[in-house]
Amino acid sequence: MRHGLPQALDAERLVLGSVLLDHSHWDDVSGRLDRDDFVLESHRFILEAMKTISDRKQKIDRITVATELQRAKKYEAVGGLTYLISLDENMPRLPNLDSYILLLREKTTLRRAIDYGKRIMNLALMGESSAADILASAELGLAEMATEENEEHGLRSLKQIMEGCDGGINSFLSPHLRIRGLHFGMPKLQRRIFGLDPGKLIIIAARTSEGKSALALQWAIHIVKTQGPVLFFSLEMSSEDQALRLIARDSGVSFHRFRYGQLDQQERIDIATAAGRAAEYPLYFSDEAYPTMKSVYMASQTAVKKHGAVAIFLDQLQLLSYFKSGYPGIDFRSENEALSFIAPSLKNMAKRLKVPVVALSHLTKEAGKNNKGGDPRPTLNMIHGSSAIAKSADVVIFPYREILDRPQCPELKQLAEFIIRKNRSGPLGTIMGRFNGKTLTFSEDEDQDGDDE
Is the whole model's pTM more than 0.70, yes or no? Predict the structure, then answer.
């Protein structure tokens, strides 16, 4: 058997010939190959002609392809009718089309790897980037190619989906047996969004002082105690402040008393005990100022591969660098442009690393303003950079405390709501809850399960 380019060209001829032999093969070809999978320009012209014919709802055969090539003035470039006849000449009635397609895709991946290797070599020769940056770019690019190659363009049959469920088909058909993502200590909200599933991007959005950072840290602590390590990007406050919050929460001591050193003897004992426990938690913090998307990805990859992280938290989106992405040639002119890159990149990171990513977001200045007596509760269009973030997210949750809008009503001080405005896995709605200002923690009302919208 011949190898290399001749083998690829034979596969190209066989694929095109299979379609000329039987028009029904076009669906298999068009869904899995495009012009970049063909080396010969003449074969690309033929593929494009087939696509045009299919778009017109016509049958693909030698005559219709020849006619379309003549219309596009590419008939002579492909060798005319003689070459079209040769494509399916002596071909078996049942060609092994799937093997030909897989061979072409493999050759395309190898060509991309060669091209990418050349670019990395040029970066190294130019010496304008550090060795760490060059290696990071190479690793990310090759990882993306490997993901695309392994995922068959993201297509899975129903059988593959069911058999791929943990526990097999029986678990897939039994909801109580299906793993519903990571548990985060709030069962009612857990059931609504089916947990923090690997590959999901969950957005927690709220105003300043509404409690989004406290809620995220609460989830992270529950996960590290019960399910595995967590990486927490603490961009809005220092990792030291987050550690103080964590210890105060675990000890039951007032955070404000702890922070300002106003503790009695028993509280000091409780704090010391909680600190001893916290020291053993597999919770890793990063508080790099204005990190790039690239540095977030590299740190997350290290946390998953080296430390076994099962979830990534990022507090918050708007504090990522919106001048540079960290990747060569990708810079931003505005924060909105940056968020349009960052939000889908976080979603792709979640899928690639196979962990849930929980990202926090600010709301716009209009959020919470009671316009002519209207409802001040937040909506998707109030997210800062809403279009890109809401589109990429699988779940969007707004922790809402009405006391911020009605400070004259002290009875609202401990009330909280968890408003689900987007949920790919289930219904929208509101879960009622409580906020403990002493330990900066949230809880759900036990006698309420939320009203579906």
Answer: no
